[in-house]
Amino acid sequence: MKYSKRILNTPASFIRRILAISADPNIISFAGGLPNPTSFPMEDIQVSMDSIIRKYGDKLFQYATTPGYEPLRQYIADKYNDQHQLGLTADDILITTGSQQALDLIGKVIINEGDGVIIEEPGYLGAIQAFSLYQPEFLSVPLEQTGLDTATLSAALQQPNVKCMYTVPNFQNPSGLTYSKENRLKVAQMLQGQDVFLIEDDPYGELRFRGEPLPYIGANDREHSILLGSFSKTITPGMRLGFIITRNKELMNYINIAKQASDLHSSIFSQILIYDYLINNDYQTHINKIIDMYREQSDTMLAAMDKYFPDYVQYTKPEGGMFIWVTLPKGQSAMELFDKAMAKNVAFVPGNPFYTTDDSVNTFRLNYTNSTTDAITEGIKRLGSVL
Amino acid sequence: MKYSKRILNTPASFIRRILAISADPNIISFAGGLPNPTSFPMEDIQVSMDSIIRKYGDKLFQYATTPGYEPLRQYIADKYNDQHQLGLTADDILITTGSQQALDLIGKVIINEGDGVIIEEPGYLGAIQAFSLYQPEFLSVPLEQTGLDTATLSAALQQPNVKCMYTVPNFQNPSGLTYSKENRLKVAQMLQGQDVFLIEDDPYGELRFRGEPLPYIGANDREHSILLGSFSKTITPGMRLGFIITRNKELMNYINIAKQASDLHSSIFSQILIYDYLINNDYQTHINKIIDMYREQSDTMLAAMDKYFPDYVQYTKPEGGMFIWVTLPKGQSAMELFDKAMAKNVAFVPGNPFYTTDDSVNTFRLNYTNSTTDAITEGIKRLGSVL
Fold first, then answer.
1. 262-281 in A: which are within 8 Å (CB) of B?
2. A315-357: per-residue pLDDT in tens?
3. CB count, 10 Å around CB of B144?
4. Are A371 and A382 in contact, with CB atoms under 8 Å apart?
């Protein structure tokens, strides 16, 4: 065989193909997962760019240590300690080349071929793609209005090959759903005493526009809890900076070796630039601006759906983040609807790539963060006309 | 098993440990592989930083395409076409998060467990580490003064599991050796008709301070040739930008999928910043400045070795790049010498991590690019005193 089994088993990103189709500026696209460009603090970053060479010198340009820039890791530890009382030190943080790399590193370190990976259904396709390279068996657990279906989770946890569990507890991608406090507690109880790594991927957690912040499922577990964060949704995805948090020293040591082998370290230039931005600006005021915008965009989309969608079409009502998930009546095809919508110059992502099995296709994902409110209303009106 | 077999089989970077030991400013360190900071064009990059937001706008900060910034890929294609007549288009180039990621992506795409990977002995430890994650069998071929030992190569190419061959043809790391034109032609002939990928890793090629540039071994092979390049040794390693070149479309498609899964794309901010620097400055004049400095540093080290090392100690004479390789008489231990040298506050890298087997340890690597000429002379004098 010329190529590896693992690459032949890994799907190309369906979304990247959809994005290519819908790049035409005449198309109203709800297909992407792009932050609104107003979430990029460009003027403040320009101020940092004007001074970082003077302030930090040639270490911006030289090789750097694998875990990442220590003051940035300390900043992250302090923030999570303030907001979530996790008792972190800088050594519990490793900077990654975007959260996508965190998924690859975790796959490298813990997944053997055939290992069971519990994942939400629908699940984040970037995780499905990253883990697929390590040839696991996906164990799907339905995600419902208030969190995971605990009966299915219980059965999955009893599988002899189960190794880890991947969740997006806040404003999940693709569903927009948030695990309730009760569901988090129940899941934490079910995991107690199990030798199963819990990966909580939380790129959107700061972008809550309704309701109260909730504790992480693994907040009290030092050994099995892995938390992923990112600057992509709040400062810039273009610089590719995310981070892995775990208080398990042995696991962190293996992640560090995998990181050395994978890209040595993430851009120290970008790490210092973001750090300089963070310590010299009011980050929360910046976040609040994004939250206000996304709330308005989400409300506009929901109001239009209420007005233009037939009653038999169901959809989620996000408390934050970037997505709404739509469910058509059983038997209707989201792929067929995609073709009809494209004929009206509207794009979305059919649900297919968010399932590890191919049998549920009456769902699709809408993104509201990268369209004007006028475009949102017009796009939903057109979509309603083909439903 | 809690962790993956692959991570348990992957060595931690020995060099990163040595660097930690030798970070003390009182130590004269020839252990690193760091470019001299004067190779970073900081003033010219500051000029680009002053204008890129105005010139390129929010696309610096947004998600970007997986293969990389098209104008940068076109720039690279044009350069290799000018210098090496490879007939490349931008689509033959994929930007990676440093060359280290190129090694990881290639391992992901082509290596199954047990596949044969031909590698130079001594070989680049970053490649040994990256490929180890995919659990190959390393097939070592001795690297001699003028290139690979062709008798051993011939035997390795007859192994039924052989999948790819990894080489650093110019100023190899760790040996500083360069394949002669005749050896390149001979190796190319031996590979002809074989279904074996040839990976030529060339981060130092532009830093030739003696002799004439030589053609790539795979220059005439469209299907099996993979060429790796980097901006780390000529502009900045800190931004982590390298690239993969291959004219094999099927292979490039798989590398693209592996890149999506691994980190989605490399920093678009850094890609555009480097591109803006490249098109607005005289890059060759900058390179010439680095070459002049490294020639002087190399000459200084060689002159000191000639003066202070006993005659029975052998060493290579590089035509470019960053390293000199020293061979002690058979039976002497480079690890023991390391301890004696550290007692004199001089550091180097013992040869051990550059072998896939553990039996040759009478060799060590010296780096000359990151020390002043005075420090080079003093350090070699001290090293000579413990030989």
1. 262-270
2. 999 999 999 999 999 999 999 999 999 999 999 999 999 998 7
3. 15
4. no
Whole-Å CA distances, A73 to A80, A262, A271: 11, 20, 10
Same domain, B25 and B89: no
Which residue in chain A has the smallest CA separation from B15?
Answer: A260
User: How far is Cα A262 from Cα B297, in angstroms, rounded to an integer?
Assistant: 31
ipTM of the complex: 0.96
Q: Which of A66, A108, A238 lies closest to B62 in CB terms?
A: A238
Residue of B240, B249, B259 to mutate, interface with A, max A Cβ within 10 Å: B240
Hey, is A225 helix, strand or coil? strand
Instruction: Decide which of A252, A280, A308 is a domain's last residue.
Output: A280
**Residue B49 placed within a domain:** no
Q: Give the residue from A58, A262, A265, A290 with the most B CB atoms within 10 Å of its CB, the best one to mutate.
A: A262
Assigned domain for B52 exists: no
Residue-number span of the structural domain to which B378 is assigned: 5-41+284-385
Is B101 in contact with B145 (CB distance < 8 Å)? no
Q: What is the pLDDT of residues B193-203, one digit of tens each?
A: 999 999 999 99
Answer yes or no: is B347 within a domain: yes
What CATH number should be reported for the domain holding residue A258? 3.40.640.10
Report yes or no: A161 at the B interface, CB cutoff 8 Å.
no
